[in-house]
Amino acid sequence: MKILILGNKGQLGSDLTKALSANSSYTTLTTDSDEVNFENPSELEELFNHLDKVDYVINCAAWTNTNLCEQNPSKAFLINAHSLNPISKYCNKHSIPLIHFSTDYVFDGDKATPYCETDLVNPINVYGDSKLKGEQYIIANHKKYYILRIASVFGAQGIGGKGINIIDTIVSKARENHEIKFVTDQVISPTYTQEVVKCVLKILQTPDFEYGIYHFACQGACTYFELANKVVELLGLKNVKVLPISSKDFPTVIKRPRYCALSTEKISKLYSPKRWEDALHDYLKEKGYLGKELF
Asked: Among the four residues 132, 194, 196, 211, which has the most C-beta atoms within 10 Å?
């Protein structure tokens, strides 16, 4: 099976590329923003014009820096939305299934129970709005798609391939301070990239799996405060105290949804993800943090 991975050097794309490349059942073709400009649709079209037929396209390319998206919405929409127009048209023309990753930020956060796929979308920031527009391009242009909405992603490569994400940020703060502060009024569904990889592999191995939109995250939900507490607990940092604060005490450029837990009931018929606490333990082990003297 020949697979094109767009955005192969980022946090999720790198782990997908490693997993697929290690499996002799798959041949991977890859490209990222250092080779093709996702802000320029004509470059994507040129890429597809010279591309041999593939069996799947997996799009991991995205601009995920939510603060910068807010400051530069035109760039956010070019990468997260408008690039999906030529990508989905190419897939439709050649009848190639497309796997694409969206976000929990397509929701406004006004619910008090986990969001399911049929809930009303209503993004409240540029990042969420741009990702929703990307979904809409796919749905308008193609029928063979899997849109996986994922949330609060953490993986070894880190955001932008820089080795930093929310978990590493917590670890870094805990290394430098005996008291760290995290908000108690924003609920998330943490998502480990290795769990996403397992889900994608199941999709590739299940050709009759129904196309559509799916929510994927590690099971359960937590606040950033609870997440930080769990990191500190797993690392055995008894001299580090996590202090609760309100998001009002931590102003940011972006308006974030208050509640972004995702229901994984639909996707669990194919693959049931681990609980976020167990996935967090696996990640800390992968990074070599467990059993390591941090101070």
From this structure: 196
Which run of H or E residues covers position 86? Answer: helix 84-93
Angle at 196 (CA atoms; ends 63, 288), nearest 5 degrees: 90
Alpha-carbon gap, residue 104 to 195, rounded angstroms? 17
DSSP annotation string for 214-240 = EE---BS-EEHHHHHHHHHHHTT-TT-
Closest CA to 217 of 182, 186, 193: 193
Report the predicted TM-score, pTM, of the whole model to 2 decimal places. Answer: 0.95
Tell me yes or no: is domain 2-163+189-219+261-274 CATH 3.40.630.30.
Answer: no
Share of the chain above pLDDT 90, in %: 90
Q: Answer for the pair 234, 291: CB distance below 8 angstroms, yes or no.
A: no
Query: Tokens standing for 109?
Result: 């956060």
Helix and strand numbers (H, E) in the chain are 10, 12
Q: Inform me whether the pLDDT recorded for 10 exceeds 80.
A: yes
Domain locations along the chain: 2-163+189-219+261-274
